[in-house]
Specification:
Shape: globular
Strand content: 15-25%
Number of helices: 11
Helix content: 25-40%
Low-confidence stretches: none
Radius of gyration: 18 Å
Amino acid sequence: MTVSNSVTPDTWPAAVPFPGSEDAPGHVEDVNGVPARHHYVETAGTSWHVVTAGDPDKPPVVFLHGFPESWWAFHAQIADLAADAFCVAVDTLGNGQSDKRLDLDYHYGAVAANISALIDVCGLDRFALVAHDRGAVISDNLCAVPSMADRIVGYVRMQQSGNQPHSEPRPPHELFASPAGVELFKSGLLIDMAYGALPRPDGQPPLVARPLDDTTLARLRREFSFPGVAEGASASFRGASFDRELAERKARLFAAMTMPVLFLQGSRDPGQQPSEYETVSDEVPDGRLVFVDAGHFFHLEAPAETNAEVRGFLTDIGWIGTQA
């Protein structure tokens, strides 16, 4: 499929990078053999770090990462899709190299509204959406933004609670939102515990079922260590609530998911049991449920299997792999 996006990256409104950002505007990085370009884009005074790969005349796919991550968490999926899609990966507010000012509104509905404005200034008229973890909470809200109706052609919703309560143990959102959480993030211990390099203090098994290599761990540490990330990531948890998010999905957000939705889950995440998702695909008109044999971060643990599922879904709905 060939599309005509109304604006090209060369004409996106440039922003001043947030202090401490390391990737210069226009810097091209090799991502698994695919050139990926770094941009800083402004919407209403907010600076967004966006990374693109592929031809802007190809169908757009927008990526919204989870926690504790950045755009780079999707590097394998971006590299796989870049030949057939225009990949647009965003550092969400408070993370990576996007804006991390603490006077911004970090509630998920507000962040979704701001990302919809970002999508508008980037000229993405219709697009597929791929999101993981907290990025899926933002994306659930993005589906309900009125200006997004009929523009999201398909949604890959990865590793986020569905239509059942989150099982125990739950991540400590209250800790993450506190000053102690900021210090934990600054220490670097959270990254190593999240990705299995250090044991968890609660004695629970690691969130990863397949160990990550040292190069991957080093990049994840780098992405979480930019100035302001500890404070910005903590601020993003001020509005977090598994129970409220579940209620919002049931009350209105599932109803807004009128596009095809792939609920893609890791079968070995110790905090999200497969039994929680048995009926989640029934919540939307066109829902599919697939498990990947890996843990919470299966897009990093099992990239080949994840790529196959994402590519298969986007092909099945006719967004990539078809002729205009």
